[in-house]
Every structure is written in C-alpha cells, then in structure tokens.
What does this fold into?
Amino acid sequence: MTKALEGVRILDMTHVQSGPTCTQLLAWFGADVIKVERPGVGDATRGQLRDIPDVDSLYFTMLNHNKRSITLNTKDDKGKEIFVKLIEKCDVMVENFAPGALDRMGFSWERIQEINPRMIYASIKGFGPGDYEDCKVYENVAQCAGGSASTTGEAGGIPMVTGAQIGDSGTGLHLALGIVTALYHREQSGKGQRVECAMQDGVLNLCRVKLRDQQRLAHGPLREYVHFSRGMDFGEATPRAGNDSGGGQPGRILKCKGWENDPDAYTYFITQAAVWKNVCDVIGKPEWKENADYATPEARLPHLDKVFEAIEAWTMTKTKFEVMELCNPLNIPVGPILSMKEIAEDPALRKTGTVVEIDHPERGSYLSVGNPIKLSDSPSDVERSPLLGEHTDEILKDVVGLSDEEIKAAKEEGAV
Ligand code: CAO
It folds into this structure.
C-alpha cells in the first residue's frame, strides 16, 4: 500500500506547536517533511518542559514524528542559497513565525513564487489582517480572542481556557486541510497559492455554536442554559454555562460512585428527548413519564436542576463504567470522564494506533498520540522525531544536490 501523500515534499519552517501539528499530520500521510531548524538551537520546544536532562522534550517529540531535520541558517548568504534550492525542490512551505519574520529573511510570498510558481505557501499567524496582525500569539491568547474563554467556565464564574489545544493544534489541523485543498487545486491550475490560517479564526470556527447562541439571545433566553432554570441574568453576550450541553439535548457532568476520592469519577449524562422514558426507568422515576412538568423536553427546561439531581442520585450509586454499561443498551448517551492515566492504559486505543509507544535513541520509550485520521488504503505508522540536524547531510546531498566538498564548506561557514 502506498501512503496518500507519498511524493509530496514539505519545507517545514514551523516551530512550537501550531505549525508542527500541521506538518506532522502531512508526514503521517506520507509526505516527506523536511524540518528546517536553526544550527545549534533548533525548535525551542526541544528544550522546553524537559523531563529528562539534555534530551529532546516530550513536547518536541510528540509534535514532530515522521519528519527529517536539517539545520540551516536562513539568514546567512550560503544558507539562503541552499534555502532557495529547497524552495525549488519542495511542493509546500509551511511556517508559523511571528508576523514578518520570513519577509525579513528576504523570502516574501512574491519572492517564493518567483523561485517556484508551483509552491504552496502556508502560514499560521495569531490574527488575520487588521488591528492585531502584527501580534505574537500563543495558545491561550487565541482561545481568549477566538471566543472560547468567554464562553467556557462556570455560570457566573471567571473565563476559562480549555485543556484542548484548539488554538495551536486546532489551527494546525485547519491549515493541513488548506494545504491538501491547495495541492488538489494545483492539479488543475498548475499553480501554487498562499494558504493562511489565523489562530483567532480557527478557534472561532470551533466555537461557532456560541456565535449561534449570541444571535438566539436576541430572541429570548437560552432555555437549555443553566441560567434559565436558575433564574440567572443572561447579560448581553453568550454566557459561560458550566458543563451544559452545547446542543439541543440537555446534559451535565454528574458524580459517580467513588467521586469523594477519585477526581475523575464522573460521567457526562445526556437527557436525549428520544430516550427520556428510558432515563425515567433507569433512574427509578417512572412517574416522570406522565408528569406534566417532566414529560416533554419543553416542560423539563425550567426543572433541569431537579432532573439532574435525580439522575445524579442514581449515577452516584454506580461507577462511571457501570453507568456506561447500563445506559448504552438503552440508547442513553453517556460518557465516562477518562483521566489521561486511563487513556494512556486503554488497550482499545493502543490497538487502533491512536495511542502508540515509540522508541527514541536518547530518551527510550515514550507514549504519543498517533494519527487520529484512519485511511483504509494509506497506512500511517508513527516514527520517532528526528534529532537536531540528524538528516542535514542526506538532505543537502539528495534534495539540494550538493557534493561532499560543498557540504563541508557550508558547515565550515556555519550555514548548516
Ligand atoms: N535561521 C535563521 N534564523 C531563523 C531560523 C533559521 N533557520 N528560524 C527562525 N529564525 C529566526 C526568525 O527569522 C526570527 O528572526 P527575526 O525576529 O530577526 O525576524 C527569529 O528566529 C524568531 O522567530 P519568532 O519571532 O517567530 O519566534 P519567537 O520565539 O520570538 O515567537 C511565537 C514565537 C510562537 C510567539 C511566534 O512565532 C508567533 O507569533 N507565531 C505565529 C503564531 C503561532 O503560530 N503561535 C503558536 C505557537 S505555539 O503555541
């Protein structure tokens, strides 16, 4: 079986998290990803949050699988010459530097097009064109600017960021789609194009139901929000709503057996209208099936606190897995709150390759998240991340076309 992106060569100028998640996805699908790093320095994440001294951090290793690493000083004259050759030989260039960094190096989009008109040039920035276009941005800034933080957190509490890296990894995922779309378009047009993704936009795209609710608010209270049943003020903007379900079926996080000692002994429980009668039976409230205050979804909305109190009285007598076992056959949607420890040890996730154990020459074995996107005819094995400059010589020789003497000279000059 061939890999879906075999034959596509990516010039990977990305660093930290957002860009590397994008190029890692492309690498998993078989693209040859050449990660360009500053000589002697490399991607800053190699040295961040280290758990083992002097060894590439998990932060780096888990974001840079299946790539090759070349060190190259793209500010040095010789380095620039080599960089031009790499641009000629690659299909896609990806970067997430602070705004203007590549232009300052002398590689504007216009210049890149001159060098290689088929090049797809993909960038992540914090913001799109406008007042903030020059700002540097990290994950949590994007979550705040994209509407996620203002709509996450307890009702009446402070804004919260989420543990899911929707600003970095979320935008990387968006960019990867932009790149394969541009590659597909190039098949017909023969030309490359610019692909841009702002982290603020990526976060907002993932928060679109909250913009939906902003507009619904103009027409009355959001009746499924906890504010409605508790008589709380909604204010002018979509409020934070704790763990209320974002969809039309009310749901909450409820305690399960053992919650006093286990911080993750909880379940998410959705009172889907279609299975309401099953919910009543399983929690021992069959009388609610006919009671005018509880029988219909509309009637239940002002009483959601009471509904979930009764469900929780039942879930607290069961473990989160027992809740799942009892509710699933009745088609009641529930989800155990899984800790990272439980996920790391889950045999089903190991079997599908979503959690993988990788061997690294310097750190030994570690766990990582494999490709969550499964293609039936394109395998995607996870290979360890490269050491800094591990593939410099082979890339200079095989891709750039330098002789051994030229490689030696470039090294002496400090270009690689
Ligand atoms: N050779 C020579 N110079 C290189 C180089 C190489 N191979 N690779 C990078 N550099 C230089 C850049 O040209 C830049 O130099 P100038 O500032 O002189 O132009 C410099 O290294 C640092 O780049 P940077 O400004 O992007 O890095 P930073 O650590 O200061 O900022 C970040 C990091 C993430 C805030 C910024 O890159 C950014 O805002 N990126 C866009 C948004 C983004 O992706 N954020 C998510 C990051 S993950 O949380």
